[in-house]
Amino acid sequence: MPVLTFSKVLELAKQKRIAPVYIFIGEPQLCKEKAKEIYNILQDKGSTIEVYNLNDKEDKKTFSKIKGYQEGLFGLRKVYLILGGENIELSKEEEIIKSLEKETSVFTWFIIAEKFEENRPLYQFALQKGAIVFFNFKKEEDFLETELILKLKETGKTMDRKTTELFLSLVGKDYHHFLNELDKLLLYTEERAVITEEDVWSVTIPLEEEVLFMVEESLFQSGPEKAYRIVAQLLDHKEEPHRILSYLYKSFKIFQILAEFLEKHPELKKEERFSQFSKKWEEIKTDPIVEIPKVLTERHPYRIFNLKKHLEKIKNLPQVFEELYKADLSLKRDFKNPYQVFKELFINLWQKTLQP
């Protein structure tokens, strides 16, 4: 098997067509999760597994000392899962290939690597007798959307574009969280073929940072009513009002930090085109003299660019924190209804700090 798509590799594995070596190239965590889907099939058939992380010095040392590869008990298949596969030494690759050429039916190797050169012996062996799978999506969101489409197809379900975007925006980029929430959603809609936005809101637990982003974006792009509807949904799902308010405070605190930084760098502040903004941002980041707050460096340049555009709409940033403080008092001191508190908060933010 040459370079294949993962869906094809999985289909062949389910048909008991198992390769002696699989090389998964790309983001390590994603590769590991996809490899797991195949070696779980093998373990169901009684195979045993050994795991070595070659990014770990002790594991790498132990792995280098292995001489010969023992088959599993009673002649069952033995699975080797190698993390940090780019660190396999050339002599070890040749040793692995030699063992596979003697007997390919009792061993299967899973090599997980961020990169793996084509001229390496294991790559060439896998190209002829194994399988190579690339997970080289330009964006993590592309990968998750592809995974979602495949899962929906497997279960005979559909969701429209708007529902798809809502689900992906809620679960964020964490692959484990994505899988957990998707499993819940599929189980919840087990007897129905069409998944709706209401289904997504009913069972999906969003990542905190994604909720913060959604509320913030909704407020700036769609106004107070849309932002309030998202928060109301969170309250319906028993999210603590104080935590939601904390999200909002952190969000506007980033705006404050960015505003102070842009005052020191007017060349960034005045830039309206992302291509030029990104270029200048990278120049500043690589300047050893310039100190950039960590909360900014952790974000993608396009995210910073969007924050800058939103910041331009805020006419009174100190007033924002005043309104957040009032909302906090309403919850803690006056014990007001959280729904009413947030509705008033968004209206006040819109009228007093955001409206032109």
TrEMBL record:
One Gene Ontology CC term in the entry: DNA polymerase III complex
Record keywords, A-Z: DNA replication, DNA-directed DNA polymerase, Nucleotidyltransferase, Transferase
Record-level GO BP terms: DNA-templated DNA replication
Any GO MF annotation of the entry: DNA binding
InterPro entries documented for this protein: DNA_polIII_delta, P-loop_NTPase
Identification of the protein by name: DNA polymerase III delta N-terminal domain-containing protein
Organism: Thermodesulfobacterium commune DSM 2178
Taxonomic placement: Bacteria, Pseudomonadati, Thermodesulfobacteriota, Thermodesulfobacteria, Thermodesulfobacteriales
